[in-house]
Write a structure and sequence with these properties.
Elements (H helix, E strand, L loop, with lengths): L10 H40 L7 H14 L6 H4 L15 E10 L2 E10 L5 E5 L1
Antiparallel strand pairs: 1-2, 2-3
Bound molecules: zinc ion (ZN).
């Protein structure tokens, strides 16, 4: 017996469905605002890294962004993965990355990948071109 049925027969049922609809809309709005937060955090981390001031929280901003994405089941796009490392949450610079183009076979078809090697943790990210 649900919460709706406790109040009585049919007239309350319509109100119940509209309530669920409103809840769904709120969830969608939350998802959009969380996506905005993810990109804002990563942008801010990159900005702080370029400023050359020693900010100890840069890694935490990136980690928080990845955790938020995991919570709402959102896949972070390729462009963002080119900027930050997923494994150690460090921002990619010329000093700490090695970039190569590699080839691989998938179902007898040649595919080209951009492999980004993080030198501070050793994680390799492959992005298909
Ligand atoms: Zn790394």
């Amino acid at each position: 017996m649900g919460a709706c049925q406790a109040f009585g027969p049919s007239p309350n049922l319509g109100g119940c469905t509209s309530l669920f609809r409103v809840m769904g809309e709120n969830m969608v709005k939350n998802k959009d605002s969380i996506k905005q937060k993810i990109f804002l955090l990563i942008d801010f981390a990159i900005f702080e890294n370029e400023n050359k001031k020693i900010n100890p929280y840069i890694k935490r901003y990136v980690k928080l962004a990845f955790e938020l994405a995991k919570k709402i089941n959102y896949r972070i796009p390729k462009e963002t993965h080119k900027l930050v490392c997923k494994n150690c949450f460090e921002i990619r610079t010329i000093e700490n990355t090695k970039i190569r183009i590699t080839k691989g076979k998938v179902n007898h078809n040649l595919k080209r990948y951009l492999s980004l090697h993080c030198l501070s943790c050793g994680y390799v990210k492959k992005i298909s071109i």
